[in-house]
Fold this protein.
Amino acid sequence: MLKRVVYKTICVKPINVLLRLILKPFAHLLPARLINRVPVVGTINLPVPNSEKVLILSSRGADPIASGLYWGGIESFEAETFKVYFDLLKTAEVVFDIGANTGIFALLAAIDCKDRQVHAFEPAPKIFDYLQRNATINKLNNLKPVCSALTDYDGEIDLYIPYSVLLPTSSSTLKGFRQAQETVTVPAVKLDTYAAVHHISKVDLLKIDTEGTEPKVLEGAKSILDRDKPVIICEVLKNRTENALNAIFARSNYKFFLITNDGLVHQDKIVGDASYRARNYLFITPDKLAQKLPKIPIV
C-alpha cells in the first residue's frame, strides 16, 4: 500500500517534473538500479544512435523501459542486443517484434527505415495501449501494432497477468510463469497464419521475448523457418525453454550464439545464462552470419 501511494504521488505530473529537474543533473552519480526506478510522466525525446532521427515515447509513469531510457539513454537498455540488432536491420525489410512490450525494438526498426515493414505483437491490453500510442506519436505508418499472442495454434489463449504498480511486463501465456493476479483471454495466432493472411512473402528478422513461451511461437512458424530462414533474436531463460528450443532446431543448420557485452559467444547447444545477465540468443544460418554481422566479434 505504501509503495502504491508513493508511486501515485510522484506520478502527479507537476511533482514528477520537479523531481526530475532536481535529479537529472545528478543521475549519472546514482546507481542505475535506483535512478531507473524513478518514473517519468510525459513525452520523452531520445536521439537514435548513429542517426539524426529521434524516438518519442509517451509515458504515464508506468513504463519502466521509458523511465530507464530517460535516465540512461537508449544505450543503457540491452546494449549488447541493440548492437547486434542495429547491424541486422541494415538488410532487414520485414521485421517481427513478438512480445513487443511498449515497442522499443519495433519503434526503432520502423524509425530507422520508413520502407521497412514492422509488425509488433503485444497481448497484454495495458501494455498494448502504450505500444499503440508510441506508434501513433512517432507517425509510423510502417509499424503495425497487433494485440495478440503468437503461439502454436489459432484461436484464443489465457494470458496470466501478475500484480505490479508498473506495467505488467512479465505477463505470460505460460501458466505459473509468475503468480497471476488476473487472467484474461486474448486472441492467439500462429506466425505462419498471420503471414499468410497478410500476404507476407518473406520474413527477415524475428525478435522474440514472450516470457517462457518462445518455443510455442517458433512451433507456429515452421513454414516461415523452412521458407525464409529468418535471423532470430530470442530470449532464453535458464531451465525454462532450452530443451524445446534445441528440439526445434535439431535438424536445421542454424547456429547458436549467446549475445554478450563482449560479442557473440558460440554455443553447440542452447543453454540459458545462469546469471541471467545475458538473456538473448542469436539464431542464424552460417551464410547470413558472415553476410549480416561482419563486424560483430565472435568469442
